[in-house]
Sequence to fold (755 residues):
Amino acid sequence: MDRRQFIRLAGFMTASAASPILLTACGGTDSALGPTESLSPSSSPNPMQYQFPQGIAAGDPRSDSIVLWTRVLPRNVDPIASQGAAMNSTIQLLVTEGDPAGLTGSEGVITGKVVANVTLEALSEWDHSVRHKLTGLAGNTYYGYQFIVNGSRSMVGRFKTAAAANADLAQLQFAFLSCQDWSIHHWGGFSQLLTEDLDFIVHLGDYIYETIGEDFQTGQVEARHGALKLPDGAFKAGNSGARYALTLADYRALYKQYRSDPRLQQVHARFAMIAIWDDHEFSDDCWGDATTYDNGTYDPQRGGDNKHETTRRRSANQAWYEFMPADIVFDAKASSFHTVRLYRDFQFGQLMHLVMTDERLYRADHILPEAAVGSSVGSRYLVPSQQLSAVEAQKMAIGKAQGDELALVSILGKTQRDWWKSTLKNSKAQWKVWGNEVSLLKMRLDARNLPGVPSALQQDLVLNADQWDGFNAERSDLLQFIRQNQIKNVVAITGDIHSFYAGVAHADYSATPPNTPALIDLVTAGMSSDSFYHYFASAVRDPALASAQALVFSSEAGAEQIAIQMLSVGIAQQAGVSDLSNSSQVSAAVTAAIQAKIVPAQAFVATAGLSRSEVNTFNDLLGGQLGQTIAALIANLAATKKSIAAQTLAGFIAQNIAQKVGGGITAAQIPASQVTPFLNPFANPTTGAAPVNNPWIRYADTDAQGYAVVKLTPTQLQCTFRKINPLQNGQVPSQIIMKDTQLSIQSGVLEVKVN
Ligand SMILES: [Fe+2]
Fold:
């Protein structure tokens, strides 16, 4: 093919147009290839064999274009290490019409009618990666593709283009995923993903993790995922021994190692991907070019500040560009770290408009700087809501004086925010799906009146201020815009938080009751990353936080301890003890009650042999009624007569209820279902009503890995959360799926149903 037919885009993205009829093999004659003719490339005197060690990939399907990707090197060189210019090669890309079906993912010879035959160069400048944008394609159509160098063939890939924006489309099916930490758990989910019938895949970020040996990466991992190597990686401060990607070579090395997994390669061969990044493509909880490995320095004049690493950010950008098949431009000449623009949109007929946002590159500092608080706890995690909104208001006042009220409190930045608004407002599609990295659902813990919780935690807290909860004003601005403009059927698809959620995002979460619904947020768990639950569970295993443990997990034995405390407090109250925090007065009342034979002494002794297996109570905190699992555990201990404490407590409650009912009703006649709510240590002791922290959350599974599949029609969006089984004896489980949860949203209805 004549090189002049290329449009050479900035940052070595080449482009060419497909021809429906005529294309010649590279270096061959001008004769047209018919549908059945051989597609063998020209022979070469050079006998060198080549490898495609990171497979192939297709990305950003539009109605007339696609981006195709590979990386090629001579077969005898290290597939991960970067190589010099001597390893450059010329590579042929063939694109054929139709689904290559059984050939997909194999290294067979691609067949079919050729629509493009393009010559490309794999250069050391881009680590021998190649990306090519092919235009002139037909909409809603399958194509096959293969790269060939000197007779060595990549595997055969396939992709499906999007339907033209004005086309009627009856159905669309896609998966969304995030958080695929190589170093923990397993990637069996990718094997499962291969079996799905999908038009494309959306990746919401954390495609790589920039660290190795971090606390959250030290759990068990499948045997085939060996230790990752960083050519230059720097040690993190402190003595954790963890290292992080520092240089371009490091970031490249991570993509190359992650992409060496054959399951991930097969997924890329089968489905085009639309990817955005989150924090770990650069640095944990990053904003702009700033990192949060330490708490930064505090300057009362400027506010606190994290460490800015512009060169490192630019390297991270470049590696993402080199390895992800995205229709974006990389501008190495750009000043600062704005070398890429990732936010972009896609149309799939009249059925769906997909709007992908970048929630890291233009982000302002966290509202409460770590440096001011001295710790990530209190600034990014478990943040007092009142303090958060007070500081946000201060920053908005400064921003207002400078011309943009949201400038210092923004995730999107003004340009992207304006683009987001106009894109959504002008969209004619039935469904507007927002590829959004961090959850829009408020995740709060109102611990102001919770018994037993450490006093430092007895506040109204947001669990994670790195997500939209930490940028409430901008969230309100966006969601208010949706409401004011009556934009219907907006659904966010989200990753980041390593757990599944579904709920209704509100423009104003402080309204009581919440009455400003704007969109539905569907949040997928990580593909492999350690769960949100795990982070909190390991925190409250620390004896210093033991009194907050019941908010995260309990057990049979733990629930019995709670029953003993509740019983003791109840007895002390009846005995007239006014200060229930005075443990000697409480225990004196208990001793007196035992001596008076009001309660058996065994009711205050832990039962031997009760299970200590952790039972998740964090789901109740996030998306249910706080304490309901503990109440159920105590009720079960009572019903099965496994614990005298539980039986005694349940008996007293039944007696109380019977007394209130009166009319000769006895405790034995009170059904267990009426007793159970009062076994909840967090419930209102008079009404039995349990606290609900987040009434907008309809579903929460905080301890999960998996991905989500969406099936879209004009009338309905159906989503399946596919939760996957953990490692079994260090091996990938033979049965990958543990549980499917079906969710549905009806067109025109701002609600998500859990089926
Ligand atoms: Fe993640």
Observations:
- The chain has a mean pLDDT of 93.
